[in-house]
């Protein structure tokens, strides 16, 4: 991805895409600590709008705080960087990758606290699991890898090292012919996907694992809000593997994955084996909100002006 035309916001300046570089002795490359976000902007009737930008920026700063990293920019500056890269790259809709990482001033486990680099990149990126997946649903496998224990790494942080576990699960699932992995927590209960939160529909209610074992997903928050407004009861609880097998519907949420139905798990058909009724309704409402068709959620949209 490095050899492209365009601009990346790099430590406060818009630089040429191919010049946004770091040294091979970058601390984060060696020890795996950086904090990042995945954010999306959509085309709306009133122009391009970033969805829940402030919430993503808040989570970025929370992730940094958890690991004692000082981001040398204000939240407003990071928000503005998102707007600037959309404009500089003339994007109508896009995925953003803000990331804060330690530079190459010093190696050894303890990072140098004032050597934090920040970039915000943006590029056009369609449906993460494919356009078909949003309609037809995907096939998942329960991973042989467990999700993080809350005292081994910090689950509230969207930190790069956490994703080694995601890579193990996701590549295993692909290797075995599935679209994505579902990870159980260290006690055997359902946690999340490799980069998505998970929801279960059963007898008209919506269930999702509590946040002690899963990332506090911003799409997850949005879906809970939409469901409650629809009068659907939402329950955060421990979910077993076999509860997934007998669920009426199961779906993933995430900024990249949006609302992706799961039609099969471990070779068992879930519900009707296609996008279910409530999943369809929630997905439709989600896209109405992010694409600016629901005035009740305007406060979640930051327009690029
Ligand atoms: N869980 C994990 C592990 C993730 O990487 C993501 C993507 N950020 C999510 C859940 C969903 O979070 P969000 O809806 O904020 O993108």
UniProtKB/TrEMBL annotation:
Instruction: Give the main EC class.
Output: transferase
> Keywords in UniProt for this one?
Amino-acid biosynthesis, Aminotransferase, Branched-chain amino acid biosynthesis, Pyridoxal phosphate, Transferase
Q: Which CDD domains match?
A: BCAT_beta_family
Q: Which reaction does it catalyse?
A: L-isoleucine + 2-oxoglutarate = (S)-3-methyl-2-oxopentanoate + L-glutamate; L-leucine + 2-oxoglutarate = 4-methyl-2-oxopentanoate + L-glutamate; L-valine + 2-oxoglutarate = 3-methyl-2-oxobutanoate + L-glutamate
Needed cofactors, names only, are: pyridoxal 5'-phosphate
GO biological processes: aspartate biosynthetic process; isoleucine biosynthetic process; L-leucine biosynthetic process; L-valine biosynthetic process
Gene3D superfamilies with a match to the protein in the record: 3.30.470.10, D-amino Acid Aminotransferase, subunit A, domain 2
Instruction: Please name the InterPro entries in this protein's record.
Output: Aminotrans_IV, Aminotrans_IV_CS, Aminotransferase-like, B_amino_transI, BCAT-like_C, BCAT-like_N, BCAT_family, Class-IV_PLP-Dep_Aminotrnsfr
One cellular component term from this protein's GO annotations in UniProt: cytosol
Any Pfam family the entry gives? Aminotran_4
The biological pathway it contributes to is:
Amino-acid biosynthesis; L-isoleucine biosynthesis; L-isoleucine from 2-oxobutanoate: step 4/4; Amino-acid biosynthesis; L-valine biosynthesis; L-valine from pyruvate: step 4/4; Amino-acid biosynthesis; L-leucine biosynthesis; L-leucine from 3-methyl-2-oxobutanoate: step 4/4
> Which E.C. number(s) belong to this protein?
2.6.1.42
Which molecular function term from Gene Ontology is one that the record holds? Answer: L-isoleucine-2-oxoglutarate transaminase activity
* Top-rank taxon, per record: Bacteria
Q: Which NCBIfam families match?
A: ilvE_I (TIGR01122), PRK06606.1 (NF005146)
Q: Which PANTHER family does the record match to this protein? A: AMINO-ACID AMINOTRANSFERASE (PTHR42743), AMINODEOXYCHORISMATE LYASE (PTHR42743:SF11)
The text of the family note is:
Belongs to the class-IV pyridoxal-phosphate-dependent aminotransferase family.
Q: What is this protein called?
A: Branched-chain-amino-acid aminotransferase
What is the species listed in this Swiss-Prot or TrEMBL entry?
Answer: Simonsiella muelleri ATCC 29453
Tell me the name of the encoding gene.
ilvE
């Amino acid at each position: 991805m490095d050899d492209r035309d365009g601009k990346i916001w790099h430590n406060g300046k818009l630089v040429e895409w191919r010049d946004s570089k770091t040294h091979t002795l970058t601390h984060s490359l060696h020890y795996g600590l950086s904090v990042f976000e995945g954010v999306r902007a959509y085309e709306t009737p009133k122009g391009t709008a970033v969805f829940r930008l402030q919430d993503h920026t808040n989570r970025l700063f929370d992730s940094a705080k958890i690991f004692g990293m000082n981001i040398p920019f204000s939240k407003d500056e990071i928000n503005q960087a998102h707007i600037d890269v959309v404009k500089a790259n003339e994007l109508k809709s896009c995925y953003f990758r803000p990331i804060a990482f330690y530079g190459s001033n010093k190696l050894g486990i303890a990072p140098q606290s004032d050597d934090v680099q920040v970039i915000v990149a943006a590029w056009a990126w369609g449906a993460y699991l494919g356009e078909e997946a949003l309609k037809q649903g995907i096939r998942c496998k329960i991973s042989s890898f467990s999700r993080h224990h809350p005292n081994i790494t910090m689950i509230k942080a969207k930190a790069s090292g956490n994703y080694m576990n995601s890579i193990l699960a996701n590549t295993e699932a692909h290797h075995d012919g599935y679209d994505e992995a579902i990870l159980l927590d260290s006690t055997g209960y359902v946690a999340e996907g490799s980069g998505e939160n998970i929801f279960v529909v059963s007898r008209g209610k919506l269930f999702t694992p509590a946040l002690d074992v899963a990332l506090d997903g911003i799409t997850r928050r949005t879906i809970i809000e939409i469901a409650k407004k629809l009068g659907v009861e939402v329950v955060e609880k421990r979910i077993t593997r076999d509860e997934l097998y007998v669920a009426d519907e199961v779906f993933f949420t995430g900024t990249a994955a949006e609302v992706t139905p799961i039609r099969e798990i471990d070779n068992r058909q879930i519900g009707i084996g296609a996008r279910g009724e409530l999943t369809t309704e929630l997905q439709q409402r989600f896209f109405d909100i992010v694409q600016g068709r629901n005035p009740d959620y305007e406060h979640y949209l930051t327009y690029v002006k």
